[in-house]
Design a protein that fits this description.
The protein is an all-alpha fold. It is built from five helices and no strands. The longest helix has 21 residues. The radius of gyration is 19 Å and the shape is globular. The termini are far apart.
């Protein structure tokens, strides 16, 4: 395919898709990749239910590849989008930790409450 195998996976996926698209193997718009993402989620759910780790890994890979394709269609840099999501998670999780206590001892409801509060504060909600 002419795309170096040593590229990071997100970038390699995007480059492989760009080459295929240049040869006409592409969706006409973002609805196609979005539908494929939904399809891949369904296939992953089946393999998770079956507890087939190898098949789940393959389906998760297909899902990630499809998400990169969706990003490409939306003209979004998948790497930058993922980096941003990791940054948001880190900031919000620090706020969850600032609530104090042993997080492992807190119930899921309390952790979820803290998480939603951290999101609200990050999005500029009232303190």
């Amino acid at each position: 395919d002419g795309v170096p195998r040593e590229l990071p996976a997100l970038l390699r996926s995007q480059r492989v898709q760009e080459k295929a698209a240049a040869l006409g193997f592409d969706w006409p718009d973002a609805r196609g990749p979005l539908g494929k993402v939904r399809e891949e989620i369904g296939e992953l759910e089946v393999e998770i239910e079956r507890a087939d780790v190898a098949a789940s890994e393959a389906e998760l890979g297909d899902l990630l590849f499809s998400v990169v394709n969706l990003a490409r269609h939306l003209k979004i840099d998948a790497e930058a989008a993922l980096r941003g999501a990791a940054g948001r998670f880190s900031r919000r999780f620090r706020r969850v930790e600032e609530g104090g206590g042993d997080l492992r001892a807190l119930g899921l409801d309390e952790l979820e409450r803290r998480w939603e509060e951290a999101k609200r504060l990050e999005q500029g909600g009232p303190e």
